[in-house]
Amino acid sequence: MKQMSKEDVIKLFEEHDRRWSRLATLDVLFWSSFPWPMLKPPSDPEQITYPEVQAYVLSPHQPGEKTSKERIKDYLRKWHPDRFETKLLPKVREDDRETVKEGAGAVARHLNKLLSSLSESDENGLFG
What's the pTM value of the predicted model, to 2 decimals? Predict the structure, then answer.
């Protein structure tokens, strides 16, 4: 895969925002319906790795003025199993449902790990 330009990354974030907005309006969802938080779309849950999610969430090209922690918390609100599995998972086509659930779970785990690693480095930076 060729290196994405800054413009490509910014366009990807804009497209993902549009896709999140659209999810609520769709009746049937598929694996491909979701704006997985990665710079390169995964084809299955195994491709959703911590380094990929980290690179996406901590990208300097993310829109807005939020801190990294605020951004991670925003993504966690979208991907957290309690919300995801009640609001979006029931709309996923049955053939894709288990895979999407697994992928969303991987995203939530990586986001939690990222949040706790930032919290630890903040504490070490402030008091270390």
Answer: 0.91
